[in-house]
Write the structure tokens for this entry.
Amino acid sequence: MDDSTLDLDGLQRLLWGFAGQRVITTAGRTGILGLLADRPATTDAVAAELGLDAVAAGKVIRALHALGLVESAGDGYRVVGSLRPCFRSDDQDLTPFLDHLHAMYERWGAQLEPWLRGQGWGTAPRTPEEVRRFGAAMAAMGSRIAGRVAETLDLEGVRTVLDVGGGWGQYARALLARAPGLRATVLDIQQVAEAAPASVAGTELEGRISWLGGDYLSTDYGAGYDLVLLANILHQELARSAAEIVRRAAGALAPGGRVTVVDFRIDDDKRVHPFGTLFAINMRSFGDTWSEPEIRGWMADAGLVDVERADLGPDRWIISGRRRRSQESGVRS
């Protein structure tokens, strides 16, 4: 937002942004969004079915309408068509991600000012239940973004993929679904690498996807991959480590192979793009939102050429660079 256009009314709307976030996450946690994704209902019917206060439910649902999440449907309301698949009770349900953001709201409120004052951002080890919830949240959002990435990437000639830090393989699975001849290796921590294979046992993906346990800053990636995917990885690291990950990814490519970065967007000056600047704060002092020139620079330093960018909506991008084929000149283009 251009600060020359922000007046007092605009400032008030920004300050009330906290309320909109809380209304959305609470509507997810209490089942309102799930019910209205399934069918239209009046506010009183929603309150009665979910055991909610009728006055409160009415106000929350009308706020959801004002925010654009629900629309009028006869005497009642329903989640807008573009979002209905996000809140139905299946493996694509986005509610776990809303639950994650609900908890983030609490952490930001408690930790942002102490961090700004130099007292650090207090953290505690996640409990097993918190680990489960975080995994469910990342899967809920990640599977949807992964599908968009798979549709955007040119997979012609790609037969082997290394998905670095790929968790339970949401991105790898999306790529495999798009390209039947593809095989994928997912590099993640040992606990994930040991548990994840059971999720594909007995399915058509068994034998096409495997896991490698380790640390993406120290484990040998192997070699000969047509595509090395760095999806939501670089923002978890500071510049030196991010550059090292790109270098290691480039070294794992077959000639002509590509390193593809999927991550959050930010402007070159890191002061204009709202989501990118806010997400940089979420990475506190251990990571950042990286600009296109920074990512391009790391790719160039790793010897990658023909770097291209594709926007994945307003807040994400895909940046890919190619390893030269053996017959190409070693002079950088």
Remarks:
- Residues 90-154 form one domain.
